[in-house]
Amino acid sequence: MEDWRYINSQRDIEEFVKETMGMHDTVMVGLDYMAGTWGDDMATYFSGPNSKNLRVIFTSPWTNGNIEMIFETVCRFNVSGWQECYSDEILECSISLEKLKKNSDEIYVIWTSGGTPRACGKEELLLEPIDTYIISKRVRWRITKLNYKCPCCGYYTFGHPPMGELDNCPVCCWFDDTECLGDLDYVNACLGISLRQARKNFLVKRACKDEFMSEVRLPLENELDGINWIIPSKKW
Ligand SMILES: [Zn+2]
User: Fold this and answer.
1) Average pLDDT across the chain, whole number
2) How far, in Å, is the centroid of ligand 1 from the Cα of 181?
């Protein structure tokens, strides 16, 4: 796994654009918002110094792994793709370092999928809902091989979205079956049990089924975090 690199200068931007091919034809596959706030029992709320971070994961045809970006202290963002008729695909990106407030020298990083010339880094040129953009105080990024979440044990053990690639999870021995993702009570043809039952078994026996208890192992460090991917079930 690569070390994190920060985007603090024009040179950092050029390095990022070069290594990711300007994020041409990448796809956003994960987005985690961390508010960094907490509340007490008096309904008083606090926010920490590093609050409001966004972690975004992209698959890319140009990099040997995922592009993982963490936008620290986000002050404005819009994500396109969840709306009907809009896509998660990033055709290209542009990044710039800008002063956004007249009375402050504070520099913000503007990352946008808008490309050129529509979004050339000027905040007022960003369009919603068509542009995915994130404005934050700092951005760090790395190329990393992230696994996908196992629908049974919840650890990140699959090197691909677990939908019918005929793989077993090494932590719980769940056998990848697309039909089970859409229906928790659908019986996995290979295992003879449903995903609902497999999850219950894992909580008690650390395996999706009794007969696999001697075959499972504890999750590795790189299986504790990854891409949260699952098809929502109609019968959750
Ligand atoms: Zn598993």
Assistant:
1) 87
2) 13
How remote is the CA of residue 13 from the centroid of ligand 1, in Å?
Answer: 38
Distance 188 CA to ligand 1 centre (A): 14
Residue 211 belongs to what domain range? 148-223
User: Which residues on adjacent β-strands are paired with residue 134?
Assistant: 77, 111
Q: Do 106 and 34 reside in the same domain of the chain?
A: yes
* Widest distance between CA atoms in the chain: 67
Distance (angstroms) between ligand 1 centre and the Cα of 155 equals 6
Among 87, 114, 144, the domain boundary falls at: 144
Closest by CA to 158, choosing from 190, 90, 150, is: 150
Q: Give me the sign of the Cα torsion angle 197, 29, 86, 54.
A: positive
d(CA 164, CA 234): 19
Higher pLDDT, 68 or 228: 68
For 39-66, the pLDDT digits (tens) are 888 888 888 776 899 999 999 999 999 9
pLDDT band at 101 (very low <50, low <70, confident <90, very high): confident
